[in-house]
Structures are given as structure tokens and as C-alpha cells.
UniProtKB/TrEMBL annotation, chain B:
The keyword Nucleus does not apply. Keywords: Oxidoreductase. It comes from the Bacteria. Its EC number is 1.14.13.149. Coiled coil: none annotated. The lineage of its organism: Bacteria, Pseudomonadati, Pseudomonadota, Gammaproteobacteria, Lysobacterales. It comes from Marinicella sediminis. One of its GO terms (molecular function) is phenylacetyl-CoA 1,2-epoxidase activity. It is an enzyme of class 1 (oxidoreductase). This is 1,2-phenylacetyl-CoA epoxidase subunit PaaC. SUPFAM superfamilies: Ferritin-like (SSF47240). InterPro entries: Aromatic_CoA_ox/epox, Ferritin-like, Ferritin-like_SF, PaaA_PaaC, PaaC.
Length: 157, 250
């Protein structure tokens, strides 16, 4: 049984505490992974979608959803991993993008003709070092102004 | 129909898993650090695709099974991947050209599967397609970079082509089970996929100044579980833990 009066809004607020384990400043909601919360008489249904197919963070995210809800006394939780919609970087919220940039990761650009700004100094003179980076979602760039290398969260759409 | 879809899902999953496993062997052996990371990133995506398609197989299976059981507890004759994906990884030119051939194959196949009459298959293909496009941009760039650089690199690419070319027609083979799926619009006409695949790859070979080998012997056997000796060694390596410690989790 789920406690009476519990709302999806309340559960979503609790789940703000669940971050992407690889970018611990952005919540799974701002990342676009958390799609919906539904409350039935028996349980809390949490619907999520995977980012990259092989992303190992998905397992950690499911564990953390359970743990967070357990901390609020909620143990009847059904986590559903949906096949649709297919996740893409346009699902990342403005708040998520801002948090990412502060953390030192250049957020994904939406159109291919935009330039990728250095998250350190804001310079637009940047070069791709590798299309692949430390995790599936990132590419490696270098700033030609401040000379710092940085992670770029790849555009995926 | 379920049994046909089960078999086809295995074809997709086994292809991605064997590709992913071979790429994973490059971990720590890439030509330089960034490329090492790229090879294993692509490997991870492919293993992710395998897992999705094994789940599709499970959902269409007559008996209760799991993606892990399908990957780790089936033996060589039950694997349905084409022979090309089980071949030893070879040198970097060989790995690169093989990756390019498979990326183009996946691009066109998943594009068509994303409008499959089976909704689950369509959704999974659409998801995999997004990642395959990214893989292709890398493998294509590397083919050009290697072929048009030093004489030695060009020679290695030509050698890879001379060997791999005869394994590519098998990618488009069908059996009765697949033909039933084609009739039901669950999967596309593989002959049409082969046509676009050939146009695209032959253009690249020309741009790379690589000479397409004369037609000759053609590989076959994956669809009926007849594999090269290489798959046995790969499975022995990959399945060891589950065979030695059944049900082991970590
Ligand atoms: Zn900078």
C-alpha cells in the first residue's frame, strides 16, 4: 500500500535528489531520463528511459531511485524501463544545461552549425580532440584560447 | 510469427555481441589513448544493442529465458551471427574496415526496421540507429585517413579488404523464417538493403583508392549455426565465468 494523499508531484520532488552518477550535478529529471511518476493504490510507478544503450549508469540510477524513495518510507516501487520515446539531448532542461556548464562540461548544442563554447572561459575557439570521451555521452575538446581540455556532452538526436 | 521474431532478434543480438566482444579486446591496445577509448565506447554501445535485442528475443520466446542466458549459455551452433563478426580482430586497419562495413549495414537495416510493423522492434531499432550513425562517422573517417596516408597503411587497408570482402554478402542472406517476416513487413527486403549497402561502400572504396577484389568464394553459414573455429574460442573466453559459476552475479 502507498500512503494515502501521496502525490506524483511530491515523489518528483524527492527524486530531484537522484543525480546522474557520471555528472552528479544534474538530476535524472533534468537529464530527461525520468519520464513520469504514477501513483496507484499498490505502488509508485517510476518510468525511465535509458540514455545510451550500453550505459552502465542505468543500473545505478535504478538503485538510487529505490534508495531515495525508501528514505521517505516508500518501499512499494515499480521502476519501468521504457523503449519509447528514444532519449535525445533535446530532453535535457535549461536548468540541466546550466548545471553541466558550471561543472565544467560543455552542454550539447541543438543545431550542428553552432559552435561549442569552452565551459571555462567561454571562448568559441575550440577543437575536437576525440569524438569519444570518458563516458558514452561525452566527446573530448580543447580550448584554443585558455588551452584547457574539456568534456563536451555530445549532441544525440 | 513469435518464433520467427525470436530467431531474427537473435541474429541481430548475436551480430552486435560478437562485434562488441571483438572491439572490447582492443582495450589497452588501441593505437593511442583517445582511440583506445573510442574503440571501447563503440564496443559498449554494441553490447547495449545486443542486450536490447536479446530482451526482444526473450519477449518472443516460447520458454522462459533471460538476455544473460542467451548470451552466456548458448553454444556455437546456436549462434546466428554472420561469420564476419566473429573473425579475429586483426590489425587496426582490419578492425576499422570491418567496423565500417558493419556500420553501413546497421545504418540501412535499422533505418528500415525503425518502421517495422512490430512496435517493439521499431523502437529498439530507432534507438540503436542514433548510435550507429555516430559510429559510422568515425569508421568512415578512419578508412579515408588510413587509405590515403602512407603506403604501408594503404597496403594494410587493401589487405583487409581482400580478406573481408568475401564475408560481406552473408550479411544479407535470408532463410524461410526471415522471408515470412519480410512478407509481414516486420523486417525489410534484405535484397534492397544489399543494393544500398553496395552503392555506399563501393563509393567509399573508390574514394579511398582501394581495389575491390574479383568475385570468388563467398562466406556463408551463420544463419544455420555453421561457424568458423574462431567463434568457439571467443565464446570460451566470454562465457567462462557463467559456465564455471552458474548464476554468478556481481
Ligand atoms: Zn577556454
Amino acid at each position: 500500500m502507498v500512503m494515502s494523499g501521496l502525490t506524483a508531484r511530491q515523489v518528483l520532488a524527492w527524486l530531484q535528489a537522484v543525480k546522474d552518477p557520471e555528472i552528479p550535478v544534474i538530476s535524472i529529471q533534468d537529464l530527461g531520463v525520468l519520464q513520469a511518476v504514477e501513483i496507484t493504490n499498490e505502488q509508485i510507478v517510476v518510468k525511465i528511459i535509458p540514455t545510451y544503450s550500453g550505459c552502465p549508469a542505468m543500473y545505478v540510477i535504478q538503485d538510487e531511485i529505490r534508495q531515495t524513495l525508501a528514505e521517505h518510507g516508500q518501499h512499494e516501487v515499480d521502476i519501468q524501463l521504457l523503449n519509447t520515446p528514444a532519449w535525445n539531448t533535446d530532453m535535457i532542461t535549461a536548468r540541466g544545461r546550466a548545471a553541466m556548464k558550471l561543472y565544467g562540461i560543455a552542454p550539447p548544442i541543438s543545431a550542428s552549425d553552432q559552435v561549442i563554447q569552452c565551459p571555462q572561459c567561454g571562448s568559441e575557439k575550440t577543437t575536437c580532440i576525440s569524438q569519444f570521451g570518458s563516458t558514452a555521452c561525452k566527446a573530448l575538446y580543447r580550448c584554443e584560447s585558455c588551452l584547457e581540455p574539456f568534456d563536451y556532452f555530445k549532441c544525440h538526436a | 510469427m513469435n518464433q520467427d521474431l525470436y530467431q531474427f532478434a537473435l541474429r541481430l543480438a548475436d551480430t552486435s555481441l560478437t562485434m562488441g566482444q571483438r572491439l572490447a579486446e582492443w582495450c589497452g591496445h588501441g593505437p593511442y589513448l583517445e582511440e583506445d577509448v573510442a574503440l571501447t565506447n563503440v564496443s559498449l554501445d554494441l553490447i547495449g544493442h545486443a542486450q536490447m535485442f536479446y530482451q526482444l528475443a526473450c519477449d518472443n520466446s516460447e520458454t522462459s529465458t533471460s538476455p544473460d542466458d542467451l548470451a552466456f549459455l548458448r553454444d556455437v551452433p546456436e549462434y546466428r551471427n554472420p561469420l564476419i563478426t566473429e573473425l579475429p580482430r586483426g590489425d587496426f586497419a582490419y578492425t576499422t574496415l570491418k567496423q565500417y562495413f558493419i556500420d553501413v549495414y546497421h545504418l540501412h537495416l535499422y533505418q528500415q526496421l525503425s518502421v517495422s510493423s512490430d512496435e517493439q522492434l521499431a523502437a529498439l531499432a530507432q534507438k540503436a540507429l542514433m548510435e550507429v550513425k555516430y559510429h559510422l562517422s568515425r569508421s568512415e573517417a578512419w578508412c579515408q585517413r588510413l587509405s590515403l596516408s602512407t603506403e604501408e597503411a594503404h597496403e594494410k587497408m587493401q589487405k583487409a579488404l581482400d580478406d573481408l570482402w568475401f564475408y560481406t554478402p552473408e550479411l544479407f542472406e535470408t532463410d524461410e523464417s526471415m522471408q515470412r517476416l519480410m512478407t509481414a513487413s516486420v523486417i525489410p527486403d534484405m535484397g534492397a538493403i544489399q543494393t544500398v549497402w553496395q552503392q555506399q561502400t563501393e563509393q567509399l572504396l573508390e574514394d579511398c583508392q582501394l581495389a575491390k577484389p574479383e568475385n570468388g568464394w563467398m562466406a556463408t553459414g551463420g544463419l544455420v549455426g555453421e561457424h568458423t573455429e574462431h567463434l568457439g574460442y571467443m565464446l570460451a573466453d566470454m562465457q567462462f565465468l557463467q559456465r564455471a559459476y552458474p548464476g554468478c552475479e556481481w
